[in-house]
Amino acid sequence: QVQLVESGGGLVQAGGSLRLSCAASGTIFSINAMGWYRQAPGKQRELVATATTGGTTNYADSVKGRFTISRDNAKKTVYLQMNSLKPEDTAVYYCDLRGYATAASAGGRLRDYWGQGTQVTVSS
After folding, report:
1. What number of other Cβ atoms are within 10 A of residue 109's Cβ?
2. What are residue 5's phi and psi, to 5 degrees?
3. How far is CA 110 from CA 84, 92, 98, 99, in A?
4. Where are the alpha helices (DSSP H) in the chain?
5. Are the C-beta atoms of 99 and 26 separated by less than 8 Å?
6. What phi-psi label fits residue 54: left (phi over 0), alpha (psi between -120 and 50 degrees) or beta?
7. Considering the chain, what percentage of its residues have pLDDT values greater than 70?
8. What pLDDT, in 10s, does the model give residues 59-113?
9. How far is 84 from 62, CA to CA, in rounded Å?
């Protein structure tokens, strides 16, 4: 079983910064990528940023230049540094791990695992 524990959310004024962390534990055979998604009230969950184990990163256009994703592969942890926050960044932020709990040769399948979410609220 894969568990993801997020931390770092909270309330901040517009223009401020927050840093989210997500640590993975449990039975993990391999990780393809880790990342962050967010869901605002009444909206669909959307990609914020992802980082592959090989170091490739991808960002939503709305956060480019403001947010930075990083990973500590040894600790199975992903971070999201959020600067210049805007009220429209307000959402529940979810950590995602895409990988295998067991080897494919043993029947493992590539799938996404999700954290419980952490609230980020940006006041104007």
Report:
1. 8
2. -120, 120
3. 35, 25, 7, 5
4. none
5. no
6. alpha
7. 100
8. 999 999 999 999 999 999 999 999 999 999 999 999 999 999 888 899 999 999 9
9. 12
